[in-house]
Amino acid sequence: MPYKEKNRVLLLPLFKKFISDTASGRRLTPAGKRICKGAVQQYMEVFKLLEQFNQLQNNPMRIQLLNKAPIRLLQSEKLYWKRLFRSFTYWLYQKNYFDGYVHTIVKIFRTFFNYLIKEQNLLVGNFHHQFKIPSQTITPIVLEPQQLKFLITDSTFKNSLSNTLEKINDIFIFGCTVGLRYGDLMKLKTTDVQYSPNGVFIILRTSKTGTQVKIPLPQYVLDIIHKYQSKKRRYVLPRLANSNMNLQVKKLMEAAGWIYNLPKIRYRQGKPVELKNKQGNSFRFCDHITTHTMRRTAITTLLLMGVEENMVRTISGHSPGSKEFYKYIAVVQNYLNQQVMSAYDKLLNLP
Question: Residue 165 needs a FRET pair 20 to 30 A away by CA distance; which of 107, 207, 245, 337 works?
Answer without folding.
Answer: 207
